[in-house]
Design a protein that fits this description.
The complex is a heterodimer of chains A (115) and B (111).
Chain A: E1 4-7, E2 10-13, E3 19-25, E4 31-38, E5 42-49, E6 56-57, E7 64-68, E8 74-78, E9 87-94, E10 104-106, E11 110-114
Parallel strand pairs in A: 2-11
Antiparallel strand pairs in A: 1-3, 3-8, 4-5, 4-9, 5-6, 7-8, 9-10, 9-11
Chain B: E1 3-5, E2 9-13, E3 18-25, E4 31-37, E5 44-49, E6 53-57, E7 60-65, E8 70-75, E9 84-91, E10 99-101, E11 105-110
Parallel strand pairs in B: 2-11
Antiparallel strand pairs in B: 1-3, 3-8, 4-5, 4-9, 6-7, 7-8, 9-10, 9-11
The chains are: A mainly beta (115), B mainly beta (111).
């Protein structure tokens, strides 16, 4: 039972390059999230998806796009990477049944450096 | 919008009890969660309060007062492995799937 799987785990980009972070969950969860974490800043919400086919902006969406490909997969794309996007990115999912509504399940994180 | 406040750092002695507070402001409210994160790791879920009162899970307890927009996480019988960052997070009713995190409290447990 893999839970939430993110790829790649590490990536180095040059300014202006593009890339996509992939996320997949096998828990049949409706909601999925992308966060970034910078030192001293906690976890900041980039985008989230309440269900397949819907996406919404979080606190820091500028410079990112997302796709909810199906119920399992939620990808994050950087179209033109900037050094300010150097961060650790976490994908998470959440069930909506009464026993799981309060819990986010996180992937291991993707560490991105933009030079 | 939403905002959450947590103390940035707390130091406590092994075997003791520590309380970490969280105050929040949201446009609506569904529940308050707590997560633990060790350096270099991913956040892991500890507890969730949707209603006022205390929830207990082993050495960890979490409290919520919705009227005060306040909650805390209580750790008992502290162990060295409890040294980590602890985040509170709110699920709000304005776009009710949205989950917003505080900046976290870094707990250092000393011998």
């Amino acid at each position: 039972n893999a839970g939430v799987t993110q790829t790649p785990k590490f990536q180095v980009l040059k300014t202006g390059q593009s890339m996509t972070l992939q996320c997949a969950q096998d828990m049949n969860h409706n909601s999925m999230y992308w966060y970034r974490q910078d030192p001293g800043m906690g976890l900041r919400l980039i985008y989230y998806s309440a269900s397949e086919g819907t996406t919404d902006k979080g606190e820091v969406p500028n410079g990112y796009n997302v796709s909810r490909l199906n119920k399992r997969e939620f990808s994050l794309r950087l179209e033109s990477a900037a050094p300010s996007q150097t961060s650790v990115y976490f994908c998470a999912s959440r069930g909506t049944t009464s026993g799981t509504a309060g819990e986010l399940f996180f992937g291991e994180g993707s560490r991105l450096t933009v030079l | 919008g939403q905002s959450l406040e947590q103390p940035s750092e707390v130091t406590a002695v092994e075997g003791a009890i520590v309380q970490m507070n969280c105050t929040y402001q949201t446009s609506g409210f569904y529940g308050l969660s707590w997560y633990q994160q060790h350096d270099g790791g991913a956040p892991t879920f500890l507890s969730y309060n949707a209603l006022d009162g205390l929830e207990e899970t082993g050495r960890f307890s979490s409290f919520l007062s919705r009227s005060d927009s306040y909650g805390y996480l209580l750790l008992q019988e502290l162990q060295m492995k409890d040294s980590a960052s602890y985040f509170c997070a709110v699920r709000d009713s304005g776009g009710y799937q949205k989950v917003t995190f505080g900046i976290g409290t870094k707990l250092q447990v000393i011998p």
